[in-house]
Design goal:
It contains 16 helices and no strands. The protein is an all-alpha fold. It is found in: Cell membrane.
Length: 397
Amino acid sequence: MEKKNRGRYGEILSTSLKLGLTSFGGPAAHIGYFRDEYVKKKKWLDDRAYADLVALCQFLPGPASSQVGIGIGLMRGGLTGAFLSWFGFTMPSVLLLVLFAWLVGGGSGFDAGWIRGLKIVAVPIVIHALIGMGRNLTPDWPRLLIAAAAAAGVLLIPTAAGQIGLIVLAGAAGYVIYRNRQPAGAGDGETPIAVSRKTGIAAWILFVLLLVLLPAVRAAAGHLLAVILDVFYRVGSIVFGGGHVVLPMLEREVVPAGYMGAEAFIAGYGAAQAVPGPLFTLSAYIGMTMDGIPGALVAVGAMFLPSFLLVVGMLPFWAVLRNRRWLKAALSGVNAAVVGILFAALIDPVIPSSIFTFWDAAAAAAGFALLQFAKQPPWLVVLVSGVLGAAIHILQG
């Protein structure tokens, strides 16, 4: 059994590390990368269970894509699997941002032609995920309408609160439509969780205790590392809406207080946009700038610890609740809304921040053809898109 667990842990780490090295393009693209690897290739869970997990993580504060990865690791290998899944996905960008802080100190801009290609690649990745998830999660007209309404709602109300409200409404619509019948394509999506409810309750208690006690620890210790621990744990505990929302919150915490300058902060933001993995790893750059390697380690740990505790606290109960008939009906609507939300992310911000010219669109089309028709792996599409982006940048001067 121990040998079997070691093999499973190794697979979790190697898979998440591959994703951490190749997942460019932000949270919406990450959802596409994860689906391609965990649902299509590894078959660790099906589309329905995956969409359930994505929907759950949309309700939680923190980086949704990282939480999805943590949740999949938890399903696959318990607490150790959850940690390894997070570690593999997060550490490549952490190391790159620490290196960036060390080399240039935040004083220089951060731009290159290949970054253009890494932004373009998000478009085919998201479209590819939309096609696969839409086929499984919106197979009838009611759910297609729910997805369309969710997409329109997110575009009209582009806030974290608006997104959560739309998911709730979609769940209510799913319950009304499907409460007396099993919707087409609605499997059980069984996802056994290797964590007990007692562990889940302990995670919730620890989450709340740290949120309450860390300000007092900061005041009593009077040490810069205590400041970093409090700031990043608090921001990671309360931020909804993904990486772009965390940026102004962190800026208000560190720039006015004099821990770093505005120019250094913006340079770190540019660097975080250019590396794979979650945007929340900007914490590594800020921590490194504030207090070197110890500051980077504490900042990253504090930023992601709330997400880890929340996922561990929620999933043991979610695994039981999601198989109730009334909740299955509601989840049919929620899963359709996830497809709509992903479509809305494609419309804004993925396409506007990636496609500026005809050649950008052509590069995106080439990437989509590689994924959808040539069945090439995402890492190859990332590589090709990076080269095409650099070529376009050079040719257009």
